[in-house]
Write a structure and sequence with these properties.
Elements lengths: L22 E5 L4 H7 L2 E6 L4 E5 L3 E5 L11 E2 L5 E6 L5 E6 L3 E6 L7 E4 L6 E4 L12 E4 L2 E7 L5 E8 L4 E7 L2 E6 L2 E6 L4 E7 L14 E6 L2 E6 L2 E9 L11 E2 L13 E10 L2 E8 L5 E7 L12 E7 L4 E8 L14 E5 L4 E6 L2 E7 L2 H10 L3 H10 L8 H14 L3 H12 L3 H13 L3 H4 L10 H14 L1 H10 L7 H12 L6 H14 L2 H11 L2 H11 L2 H6 L1 H7 L1 H10 L6 H8 L3 H14 L8 H11 L4 H7 L5 H10 L5 H12 L17 H6 L1
Antiparallel strand pairs: 1-29, 2-3, 3-4, 4-5, 6-7, 7-8, 8-9, 10-11, 11-12, 12-13, 14-15, 15-16, 16-17, 18-19, 19-20, 20-22, 21-22, 23-24, 24-25, 25-26, 27-28, 28-29
């Protein structure tokens, strides 16, 4: 059973975010529905072993926590409404009291200590000693009618009685935990030390005295042996029993001291401190605690419109503070017949260590449990908090009904429905990893939506059918040529069929023959296929110099360069010359010079670069370079003539005379000396000298 969130008195505003429930709810089934169909529940007591359910008929049922009748029969202990049940710590004995005036001590496994007390009026409260099961404990229990009486076995196993308190009217509730007990009359709450039989403190009623005590029964619940939770009408208190430090001499303002000293011990040794006290907008029908320190309160709304019908009960989780509480969740419960019930018709008991909270109404028993990770996931998905749900699925090992892939698929569907395709694609690697089946299905899904471009950056690089990658490339080809070019340069060609993609590009180019990205893409694919001549032809056509030179150097395509040399020079002369100068073994200067003679300036710059790198590289072209220097760089002519001896001196003289250089006379003189048979060695020169040596030195 789920909490009912549909009948809330006020709708959440747009700005207010709904709180996630802290608890989940189930109706107890099995034998329980049949029991409640034949009668009405009046009270409950729970133990780690079982549930004791008291009925208005006087019957007490013993059931397991799932609602199965353990004893296969009812305990007909009373003839009228059972008003309170109490179980000892071991779960061996049960105490009950009833409107029929009886108190019954019933052994669940033995009748040795069974006891029935009969009074002439209803008995409103009973509590059994938690240690009742122990031999030598005195088999004690306490009853409450108009006074609180302790029953204890003494000599010859006869019970003796001790009046613990009287004079304040009917006793409505008694609760006993360990050493301490507490009870409530219509006027006060008393906390009692059952070890020394002395009261510790009295807490006076502080709610509206017009509220009828029989309709607003005081709730007493022990969080542990020294912490008492009190809920009375619209007031809640958390009371802690303290042991005073002997060195302290003052009393805290929030502590409650005994009215009088009636025991041998110093009454100031133990005191009660109210650590939290606050008023509520509702009436408290039951109190329990979560192990986290929060309180669980069963509540009903105050009837402000004088309506005869009651509202649904609510189970609230709150954090108690000194003068207030912070509500963490509030769940409206779907209780059968709630309209006819009052606050006194509900009760709550719990097993906090097991995370079980039992809500009882006359025709319903509901168990509340702390929500687990699956419940948390239910709520996140119900409220479309998909991103947070994915994070929980990633980090939690406690999910039983959900998987990361299942949650991720719901998130994916939501993102696709909202057309947030980029975000949908981004979350897929985290959720689905390298699951090839999922990715292939997703490719087809995104293809139908024409959103494969969003999927491409996160697509696994390998492991999928080549068709999946080809579909992605085709969408880019049709809608984003630049993206297509980027993708084929980034992806490993082994992912897809290169011939298939080449055909697709060629088909697309028939509609856009001048598309540079498509041409570059086709050239790249040709180079992948090893069709370098086709690739370079395309690069040259579109002027992609960098691609040409990179391809040539990477694959040694010097033969292709030789055929396209003139075009390459026009494309980027500087890079072309750099390539030619570095590759004289593959591209001999004689061959290059021959192909560039129709472009004198290009030839000049090529030979000049070659000469600057090493004069020996173009020795056969020195005279040709001299002619080009004379035309394009006269200032470089003399340095060439000084360094080189690979040119005819007469032709060099004629070249200088044609250009009317100022050194023609010196070159003529040197030429005459050469014709007279002189040589550098005849003049005492050591080593070989180049022709025109004297001219060059005097120049």
């Amino acid at each position: 059973m789920e909490a009912d969130n549909g009948d809330q008195d006020q709708e959440l505003s747009d700005e207010e975010e709904e709180m996630e429930p802290k608890l989940r709810y189930e109706r107890i089934l099995n034998d329980m529905p049949e029991i409640l169909r034949n009668g009405a529940a009046s009270c409950i007591a729970v133990h780690p072993k079982f549930i004791a359910l008291g009925m208005h008929s006087g019957v007490v049922y013993i059931l397991d926590h799932q609602g199965n009748n353990i004893r296969n029969k009812e305990l007909q202990l009373h003839k009228d409404s059972v008003l309170q049940l109490s179980i000892d710590e071991q779960g061996d004995h049960l105490a009950s009291c009833s409107r029929d005036g009886k108190v019954v001590i019933h052994g669940l496994y033995t009748s040795d200590h069974n006891q029935v007390l009969t009074f002439d009026r209803p008995v409103g409260a009973v509590a059994i000693d938690p240690n009742f099961y122990r031999s030598g404990s005195g088999r004690r229990f306490v009853t409450g009618i108009d006074k609180v009486v302790l029953y204890e076995k003494g000599f010859l196993s006869r019970y003796r009685t001790t009046i613990l308190h009287q004079g304040e009217g009917p006793v409505r509730n008694i609760s006993w935990k360990g050493r301490f007990a507490a009870w409530a009359t219509d006027l006060t709450i008393l906390v009692y030390d059952m070890q020394v039989l002395d009261f510790i403190c009295m807490i006076s009623r502080d709610h509206d005295p017009l509220l009828k005590p029989e309709l607003h029964r005081c709730i007493l619940t022990w969080r542990d042996e020294r912490c008492l939770l009190v809920g009375w009408a619209d007031r809640v208190k958390v009371c802690c029993i303290r042991q005073r430090d002997p060195s302290q001499s003052t009393v805290s303002e929030d502590s409650v001291q005994p009215k009088e000293d009636t025991s041998p011990r110093n009454p100031a040794d133990i005191y009660v401190e109210i650590v939290s006290m606050f008023q509520t907008d509702y009436y408290v029908c039951g109190l329990a605690h979560l192990c986290s320190g929060s309180l669980v309160a069963l509540t009903v709304l105050k009837n402000t419109d004088n309506s005869a019908e009651s509202s649904r009960p609510q189970l609230r989780v709150m954090e108690p503070h000194l003068g207030e509480s912070v509500e963490r969740s509030s769940d409206i419960l779907s209780v059968r017949g709630f309209r006819a019930y009052r606050a006194s018709d509900y009760c709550l008991d719990s097993l906090p260590e097991e995370g079980l909270f039992f809500v009882v109404s006359p025709k319903d028993v509901i168990v509340a449990k702390p929500r687990d990770q699956d419940d948390h996931m239910d709520w996140l998905l119900q409220h479309e908090k998909y991103e947070e749900a994915v994070q929980v699925a990633l980090s939690s090992r406690d999910l039983k009904r959900y998987t990361l892939q299942g949650v991720g698929m719901q998130y994916l569907e939501q993102l696709i429905q909202s057309q947030d395709f980029e975000r949908a694609a981004e979350m897929c690697p985290t959720v689905f990893g390298a699951d090839a089946r999922f990715w292939e299905e997703l490719v087809y899904r995104f293809a139908c939506l024409r959103q494969l471009r969003c999927l491409a950056p996160v697509l696994p690089q390998g492991g999928l059918d080549p068709t999946a990658y080809e579909m992605v490339l085709n969408e880019f080809l049709q809608l984003d040529p630049e993206g297509f070019l980027k993708l084929i340069t980034e992806w490993d060609p082994a992912l897809y069929s290169v011939p298939t993609v080449v055909n697709a590009v060629r088909d697309r180019l028939s509609y856009e023959p001048s598309s540079v990205p498509l041409l570059k893409g086709l050239a790249h694919l040709y180079s992948v296929e090893g069709k370098f001549d086709l690739a370079i032809a395309i690069y040259l056509e579109i002027g992609a110099a960098d691609a040409v030179f990179s391809l040539v150097q990477k694959h040694g395509l010097y033969g292709v360069v030789q055929e396209k040399l003139a075009l390459l020079i026009r494309l980027d002369e500087e890079k072309a010359n750099e390539l030619l100068v570095k590759s004289t073994d593959q591209l001999p200067p004689d061959t290059v010079a021959e192909r560039l003679r129709q472009q004198p300036q290009a030839l000049f710059r090529y030979l000049d670069a070659l000469f600057r790198r090493s004069p020996a590289l173009c020795e056969a072209q020195h005279m040709e370079l001299a002619r080009l220097y004379a035309v394009y760089a006269p200032d470089k002519l003399l340095p060439l003539l000084r360094q080189s001896h690979s040119y005819p001196l007469e032709e060099a003289l004629r070249l200088c005379q044609e250009k009317k250089t100022h050194s023609s006379h010196h070159l003529s003189t040197q030429t005459h000396g050469q014709h007279q048979g002189g040589s550098p060695s005849d003049h005492g020169q050591a080593g070989r000298r180049p022709p025109g040596h004297h001219f060059l030195q005097g120049a």
